[in-house]
Amino acid sequence: QLQVVESGGGLVQPGGSLRLSCAASGFTLDNVAIGWFRQAPGKEREGVSCISVESTNVINYADHVKGRFTISRDNAKNTVYLQMNTLKPEDTAVYYCAVDRGWATSAACALTRIPYDSWGQGTQVTVSS
Asked: How far is CA 123 from CA 4, 41, 108, 110, in A?
């Protein structure tokens, strides 16, 4: 059964760092695209970063996290990471990872909810002093 599980969230002070993990089971990460999304209370879910299939290795970031967040993939651990540095209170949200298995769409990667078809349960990130 295809499944992704997020972990690594928590409470951190402004300026601090966290590393989120998206662990996959039932499939291998090298032939899908993975997206990181977040949803703050009362707001729409938004794309944060994504990484395509390994053969093309396209990476995208939302403008508001460029230079602060880094996405990476560890095939040996079948896990995608989101390293988040210089965190701000406005980064507070539930963070989700999602899987795009589409042959065409996963060659690049999208920061929109479509074409992702499998989602994790989310991990809470709170940035506060």
From this structure: 12, 14, 25, 21
